Please model this.
Amino acid sequence: MFKLHVLFTFVVALVLVIALPALADMDKQDIAREAVLAGKVAPLSKLLSVVEQENQGEIIKIELEEEDARKWGGPRGNRIFIYEIKILTRAGELLKLKYDAKTLKLLATNRYGGNDRRSKDQHSDD
Model:
């Protein structure tokens, strides 16, 4: 009986470990979908069009993040959505780009070269 109880507890724990990240991702997907529908975030297709026009290389990762607006010059207490894109360029550089997810304005660029060189560009309202 004790072994059966331990086995049952282990199986439940294993199912939770496997299922919880999937549920968390579903929540993130729901948040992203609702943000697009509410006009707070531009659709991914528009982002891809902008990124592909401005950069050459292979997009290897895209994330939608919510950040403090003050970091990007916004008012205190507000949050904004940021698209973070990682691109592997033909020259072998890794680009990490941050776009305002609503306006698709480029906010920051980080470049990581083959020599562990790193440069960071903050973009302004030029």
